[in-house]
Each structure stands twice: as structure tokens, then as C-alpha cells.
């Protein structure tokens, strides 16, 4: 499973619904993620990709879409 598919699976699991999530779709505007779910999303990403996401990086903008999350993870050299 590639990085994008893993991220999509995490989001779908946290949203508790299967959805066709487009890579550039806003996770917040679509209601798939909210401020409470963001904490769980960060935790799941840390676990899945064996990284630690610093508190300073916890900007909803960085985690607003599958593409942005993938870009962030690649910038951390975990892809």
C-alpha cells in the first residue's frame, strides 16, 4: 500500500465511514476531520509512519487534505 492509500485508509477509519476521498479535497470542509479528530489523525500518522510530529507543526492547514499530508510526510523523509 502506498503512502496516499495509507493516509486515505486512516482518514476513512477515523471518519467512521467509507468515502471516496479525493487527494486535494479539504478534509475539514467535507466534515471528514474536525479539530477533535485532528488529534487522532496525528496520532495515527505517527504510529503508521513511525515518526513524531512536533507540536509546532500542528497546523490544520498542513493536514487539510490527503495531498498536503503526503507532502508533509515526504518532507519528513518517511515516504
Question: What can be said about this structure in brief?
Answer:
This protein is mainly alpha-helical. It contains three helices and no strands.
Q: What is the radius of gyration?
A: 11 Å
In whole angstroms, the N-to-C terminal distance is 11 Å
- Order of SSEs, N→C? HHH
Helix content: 40-55%
CATH topology, by name, is: Non-ribosomal Peptide Synthetase Peptidyl Carrier Protein, Chain A
Mean pLDDT: 90
CATH superfamily: ACP-like
Question: What's the arrangement of secondary structure elements?
Answer:
Elements: H1 3-15, H2 35-49, H3 66-75
Helix pairs in contact: 1-2, 1-3
Features:
79 residues; mainly alpha; Non-ribosomal Peptide Synthetase Peptidyl Carrier Protein, Chain A; 48% helix; globular
Amino acid at each position: 500500500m502506498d503512502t496516499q492509500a495509507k493516509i486515505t485508509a486512516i482518514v476513512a477509519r477515523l471518519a467512521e465511514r467509507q468515502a471516496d476521498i479525493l487527494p486535494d479535497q479539504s478534509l475539514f470542509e467535507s466534515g471528514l476531520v474536525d479539530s477533535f479528530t485532528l488529534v487522532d489523525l496525528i496520532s495515527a500518522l505517527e504510529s503508521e509512519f513511525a515518526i513524531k510530529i512536533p507540536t509546532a507543526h500542528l497546523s490544520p492547514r498542513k493536514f487539510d487534505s490527503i495531498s498536503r499530508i503526503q507532502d508533509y510526510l515526504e518532507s519528513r523523509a518517511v515516504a
